[in-house]
Structures are given as structure tokens and as C-alpha cells.
Amino acid sequence: IVYCNRGSGGGNAVGNEQSTALGAIREMEARQAAASFGITNVWFLQGRDTPGQDLFQSLATWHHGAVLEDVVRLIRLTRPEVVFTWLPHFVAGENHGDHQAAGVIATEAFDIAGDPTVFPAHVMAPRERTDINNATEGLHPWQPKKLYFFSDASHDIVAEGPAFDQTAISHTRREPYYKIAASLHAPHRTQGETSAAAVEALRTGDFSWFNAWLGRFRLIFGKSLVHCVPTGDVFDGITAEPVAYRRPPGYLPRPGRGVSLALGGPFEFYRNFWPAHGIERVGPLVRPEIEVAAGSYLHIPLLIRNDTPDSASVTLRPLLPSGWREANGSGTYRIPPGGAAAVQTFVRCAEGTTTNPVDVSWEASSAGARLGDVTLHVTLKDWTLPQ
Fold first, then answer.
1. Per-residue pLDDT at 345
2. How far apart are CA 370 and CA 350, in angstroms?
3. DSSP state of 294
4. Radius of gyration for the alpha carbons in the chain, expressed in angstroms and rounded
5. What letters, b where the CB count within 10 A reaches 16 and e where it falls short, cover 75-85?
6. Cβ neighbours of residue 63 under 8 Å, at least 6 residues apart?
7. pTM surpassing 0.90?
8. Residue 309: HSE in the Cβ half-sphere, 13 Å Cα cutoff
């Protein structure tokens, strides 16, 4: 297991320890949990816990390249056949920037660990391995074979992936998987509700809450370099033989579409990221959505593109539900030929929580003609991570 940070920015359900001290406690909790599952190889990297929904803030505070190198090193060191990571997608209820950043970095590492020209000091043999002060690491490139994602979105994600029966009996532990899962969650005392529920279930033998909670867990098939069935077992198609490095598709600019309006920020990034890494299948799984706190400000990044040989003037206006109001964004923007404008819009959300998402849209027009609109599906909660 590789943790990109120690969770030092979170809350503490059982004590006053915070910041670096909390990170030390959470590392102990995670190691105890992994050990209860029989996992003793656990690494903690030096990313800084960055509570929020901003993928780019997490990547920046982690020093993206440094953490990526660490993950690539550990893939080359441990040689996993299968990689599991957070779903690299902007999903309501899941939008922890650190979770997204972990998914992005793990996907990147999957695609470059087998390339000896990336972080080459890892794979160069030392000058004299029995002597001191060797700078190179003597590892070998390694290409994992399969990539799966998971998410704790606040709604079900319908996707291809292996099916799980948490009530089945483990062949090695001789107990149901839900009980093993409770043992895995119990040590995370600082994180509150789930740990407390796990401790109570193990004490009383009543696992009904855990069964209901675990019943939503799904693995999402990302991609495979060996022949397999996406809904099959995670080791379907895996053999002892290594596979050759497989170059990912890489980024390719999309063809121009005249003057256009699209969601920007992380939405634009993922539209480029998925095809670059050959995981386009995850894009349609979730519509553009977010959860924010009722009565707060909602930031919607927009991208206006002008893929024409002439300048264009584009007018934006919001289409808001009742009780919402604009704070910033409407107006006319002049876009040069072949240029683009990143527009940061803000609206004030209505008071009161919502059960179902409402549509918040921005409409664009140019030269009196409507270009189209973009929509974000927004659910209002009592509290969410800040944008």
C-alpha cells in the first residue's frame, strides 16, 4: 500500500492532536489496519494533506513530479501485477483533491514505470554495488498489467468491474469478508464514524450497518495489457510472465470546433487526461457534478475557445435556479483567432440542502447567435470540503 500523505490536515474524533502530530497518529492507525489484513509493506510519501476539492492545489502542494517519482520507484521495486487507485474523475461526494491527485499519479506511474528513459537513475546499475555512495538505484523497468479504480462517491457509479459478495467466506481467513473489512476499519479511530461502527460491529456481532455500507463498494475496470474480461476476477488473465512496456496513447490536441464553450479547470484537464492514458471508458461514467455547502459560493470554471481565423466576441450569462444569484462571470469576452479564455465564474448558492441535484448553467452567444451552454449538476449539503 502506498499512501501519498498522512492525513495531517483532517479532524480528530478522539483527541486534541492535530497537524503533524495527527499525521503521525494516522500513520500508526493505517499501519495497524493494514497489518490486521496481513499487509506489512506500507509506504508513506511526503505529500501534504490538502483538504479541499481542488485537484491542482493538491498536485501543487505535493510537488507532483516528486511524488510521481516516488510512486514509479515503488512500482519498479515491488513489481505489482495489478494497480488499484482512486477514480481520476470529478465525482459528487468524492471530490477530495488528494484522492483525485492519487488517482492521477497512480495512472501516470502505471504508464511510465516500464519506460527506462523516465527517471533513468532508478534503472541504471550502480558502479560498484558493494561500495558506498552509489547514486543510481539498480532497479529494473516494470510494466503492471491491469489498472482498476474505486470511489466513495455519494451515489452509485454504474461501471464495468468485478462483482463482490462481502458475505462470502474468505478461503484463508475462514470468516466473512465484511468481518475482515470491519477489522480493517476499526483502527482508524481519529476518523470517527466508520471506525466506531466497525468497533461496535466486532463487539456485538451485528454487522448490518457494515453490510449495507460495503454493499456499495465497486471496483471500476480501467484498462488491461493482458486479455481478460472486465467484469472478471482482478487476476483474470494474469500469468507469471512479465509483459513488455506499452506506450500510452499520449496527449493529442482535439480538432477545432469554431467558437465553443466548455467547462474548464479539472473538467478540461480530465477530458485531455483520459484519452492520453487510454482510459476513455471512465469519462462517461459521471456527468459534470459537484456537492457544495448550502448558502456558499460555487466556482464554475469555463473555457471559451476560438478555433477560427477571426477574432470573436462571446457573451456569457448564467441560467440559475430559483434562489441562486450570480456573483461574477457574465459579460462579453473578446477572444483572438486561435485563442482561448479561461473564465472563472462564481454564483451564490441557495440556502437549504437538496436531495436531488439542481442544474446550474452558463449560456454563450456570439454575433447574436447562441453558441450553446454548459451545465453543472449541483447538490447542496450542510457541509462539504471547500472548493
1. 98
2. 27
3. T
4. 23
5. bbbeebbebbb
6. 47
7. yes
8. 0
370 φ/ψ angles, rounded to the nearest 5 degrees? -75, 125
Tally Cβ neighbours within 10 Å of residue 281. Answer: 15
Grid cell, residue 24, equals 503521525
Look up cell 479561461; give the residue: 342
Output the CA angle 48-75-116, nearest 5 degrees.
110
Is the CB of residue 261 less than 8 Å from the CB of residue 314?
A: yes
Going from the C-alpha of 70 to that of each of 58, 66, 106, 122, 382, the distances in angstroms are: 16, 6, 11, 10, 37
Q: Is 74 helix (H, G, I), strand (E, B) or coil?
A: helix
If you average pLDDT over every residue of the chain, what do you get?
95
pLDDT tens readout for residues 199-250: 999 999 999 988 888 888 899 999 999 999 999 999 999 999 999 999 999 9
Chain position carrying cell 483533491: 97
| Residue 96 CB partners (closer than 8 Å, separation 6+) | 51, 52, 53, 385
What's the rounded mean pLDDT across residues 330-355? Answer: 97
Which helix (H) or strand (E) element contains residue 219? none
